[in-house]
Specification:
The chain has 158 residues and is an alpha/beta fold. The chain has 5 helices and 6 strands, in the order E-E-E-E-H-H-E-H-H-E-H. The chain has a 4-stranded mixed beta sheet, with helices on one face. A two-stranded parallel sheet has the order 5-6.
Length: 158
Amino acid sequence: MLHRAILPSPLGDLTLVADDFALVAILWPDDRPGRVPLGASADTPDHRVLAAAAAQLADYFAGSRTAFDLPLAPRGTAFQRDVWRALDEIPYGETRTYADIARTIGRPTATRAVGAANGRNPISIVTPCHRVIGRSGALTGFAGGLAAKQHLLALEQR
């Protein structure tokens, strides 16, 4: 059984999901159904992982946190997990392109597959997929919407 809690944020209500030991997902208010496949969950706002995630995200949105210290258990393929680990290496306030990530994971021709894996990142914000931009520098797709992506990047530029 998974646990969930709702976190009000400047970007709308985020749904935090954890198993017994780690954060599994952060879902957006208008998240596409099935983007992050999960099983049944129950409201457990006092769950220790969810409470820690909520506190750290609140600090991040307040501008007082630049890194997260949470147990994470993203569910995905080996390739997706490689991409998500590469996202974790992007420093706060910096961006990378999809091609940069493809090179980082040793798959320089897999730019489109990196984009698809980025779009399925189940732990948005904490695993910073918002820091990935198009080759031209343009903001590209984001599960939370481009306005949310712009908000997160602007927050990190302060």
